[in-house]
UniProtKB/TrEMBL annotation:
Alphabetized PROSITE patterns for the sequence: ARGINASE_2
GO terms for MF: arginase activity; manganese ion binding
CDD domains: Arginase (cd09989)
Binding site for Mn(2+): 130, 153, 155, 157, 259, 261
Entry's family note: Belongs to the arginase family.
Free-text comment on the cofactor: Binds 2 manganese ions per subunit.
Organism expressing this protein natively: Drosophila lebanonensis (Fruit fly)
Phylogenetic classification of the source organism: Eukaryota, Metazoa, Ecdysozoa, Arthropoda, Hexapoda
Stated name of the protein: Arginase
Keywords of the record: Arginine metabolism, Hydrolase, Manganese, Metal-binding, Urea cycle
Keyword Phosphoprotein carried by entry: no
Amino acid sequence: MWWMRKLAKNVGLARLKHTTSSGNSTDQSLAIIGVPFAKGQSKQGVELAPDLLRQRNLTQVLQSVDDRLVINDYGNLKYSVDERLLKQQREHYSHIRNYADFMACNRALIGQVQKMLEQNSQFLTIGGDHAIGFGSVAGHLQHTPNLSLVWIDAHADINLHNTSQSGNIHGMPVSFLLEQLRGTWQHAGLDEIAPNCLPKDQLVYIGLRDVDPYEAFIMNKIGIRAYAMDSIDRVGVPKIIEMTLDALNPQNKIHVSFDIDALDSHVAPSTGTAVRGGLTLREGISIVEALRDTKRVQGVDLVEINPKLGSEHDVRTTVDSGLEILKSMFGYRRSGAWSNIDTGILG
Ligand SMILES: [Mn+2]
């Protein structure tokens, strides 16, 4: 397959760059990892998204935004489940579906993200369901402890093992990341696999509109900044962006975890837990543009695109929306850009 050939080429390139880099190179390089993980929820199909985005010319689309960006596609993540994790699942987390798979996949992703950041200036993780947000952000935190997280989503994904109604672990990844909730996962060995965690004041949610009662309680109790759709309606996206950036430490790098269901189901219908009344595509683009313009975004996730849900047209619409978000995230300017052209034309 073409992307595997490209992968082999790019891995060679990344190594070369890594070994010859003087350490202060201004080269921008973006690592891409696909994580075809679907066991955080119950619908099949979300595991097809990484390869579908590649077929829809993901790298070419990003390259067209910035021709100086070096893009290194690391292919799709592989993992294997060991007996120790199955034992943990049986003993402590039996009501969570696929806990052992979740942990095995995220452990592998934590290592992969650290490796990619040693070799590249930025990375993009493509899901899969949002359960992989744990490994993607946790890996980022192990490489860059001073990190801020913007979680753009219809859902808060902050359930605990004892508050989740469904047992679907894609509704829990944030609780694995937060310093203040570590104690609730005492059997998960988090201090061993991801000792650096996120302080609650460096997390901002944008786009919420379907939050469980226990999630709302937890967020309120520990004081998490969340701009749900009603806040956006009251003050508008520009103000939400301003408040988000004011809240985050300006010295920190930023991780943007973008769940496609943050967008309204009209522009992103092919997703497992679509909710009406979400962000318009323009609002989504405005938000990621503003984050990008800080020049501090170092890690991005795009998750929950499910090509098996909806019609062919629905799938195309959803993938197109995802690509628009990624384009803006990695440099596309709606007002035009001239940094790459020969400007001698006007004499
Ligand atoms: Mn989510």
